[in-house]
Amino acid sequence: xxxxxxxxxxxxxxxxxxxxxxxxxxxxxxxxxxxxxxxxxxxxxxxxxxxxxxxxxxxxxxxxxxxxxxxxxxxxxxxxxxxxxxxxxxxxxxxxxxxxxxxxxxxxxxxxxxxxxxxxxxxxxxxxxxxxxxxxxxxxxxxxxxxxxxxxxxxxxxxxxxxxxxxxxxxxxxxxxxxxxxxxxxxxxxxxxxxxxxxxxxxxxxxxxxxxxxxxxxxxxxxxxxxxxxxxxxxxxxxxxxxxxxxxxxxxxxxxxxxxxxxxxxxxxxxxxxxxxxxxxxxxxxxxxxxxxxxxxxxxxxxxxxxxxxxxxxxxxxxxxxxxxxxxxxxxxxxxxxxxxxxxxxxxxxxxxxxxxxxxxxxxxxxxxxxxxxxxxxxxxxxxxxxxxxxxxxxxxxxxxxxxxxxxxxxxxxxxxxxxxxxxxxxxxxxxxxxxxxxxxxxxxxxxxxxxxxxxxxxxxxxxxxxxxxxxxxxxxxxxxxxxxxxxxxxxxxxxxxxxxx
Length: 502
Known about the structure:
Blueprint: H1 2-6, H2 11-19, H3 22-25, H4 27-40, H5 46-56, H6 60-75, H7 79-132, H8 138-167, H9 191-210, H10 224-241, H11 248-253, H12 255-304, H13 309-319, H14 323-338, H15 341-352, H16 355-370, H17 375-429, E1 436-437, E2 443-444, H18 451-478, H19 485-501
Antiparallel strand pairs: 1-2
């Protein structure tokens, strides 16, 4: 709103444009929609519509905002200054909430390490010793492995997800996935337009052949179409070659090996495919968010020199590099093919498919309709985009130490299991029968100690810990579990190293 106001757009038009952008502004757009309806359909005056919106909204911050806006309108104050002060105030408030939120996440991470990593280590050691002493503790270890640890990890992930939802004071706009917009007003029968379409299709085909993974961009679960058939085919070859058998008898004879072949190996294939697609898209988004403020600043500098918007885009395109430069080249070609800069900008935003870019493009188009001087608006949006990117970066930096703590915790967990497997269980197996006295006072027999059952449960618990901690790290650092797959896979490989190689 501040950028639109600085660009010379009147307040009623600002309210209307915001209300029409629910995919970008979320609940804020919905709230302003009622004000716009009062203005256009019921012929309310601006102050009357704002007053009605203030009375009807359930949001206390939005009510305060409307109250202050009404006061500025009644007193004839400067609207640009009002929006600027509000923007700075909301940014400071967002930073304070961010600091409090990160402190809470840190406390949760410390509690998780104590309860879900250190706690199971002590419980497993105690239960194993009690089992060797003659107590039947295998059922308790199984309950901890298959119920306690997964339930605890799920609970912490759910808790972080709730906090993320409550903390997200900015708009969480949905990605529209819209790739083609209306071409109303464009003469599609001209040779220039048809040539543009042919070049665009050829460019799209070349892009697909060079980067086939981009067909799955933004939809990592599409990798199942490749990884699941590969996993099934691999398992079929393993079974026919006699390397492993999916029978119950084979599992009872070699539980760890059978679990690795028929559970862990397919899991690595499937999760690896998801990780590749997700990380490819995540890095693209990070590159766009990092470079986009610089592009806006360059556009502002060029426009301040009196250069028209179309020429500004051409100038910035030649100076840009990386993934954003490719999108800008498409934008420049689109403008030359259609000669409709506004429609081309909307397609540019749909091509990038990021809420922050869509928000800026809609603001830019509306401001360009009202004024040729866009430098002030572009500088405002550049600062806003940079500050939002910095808030995301602050979270990653604050959570990085906990990534190391989680890795060390899982490695300690695996180290404890390695000691049990290499030193404790072989020593127990060598103890002659009757070497223990159980709680009933009778002699125990080391042959009945379920060493294999203990080792199997410890292996399964290590797999759960590796994947669960990876997903939790992703939720802590990036607010997305899929981001944690890149942490879970190395931990899972470390588990395989401990149980199969050492």
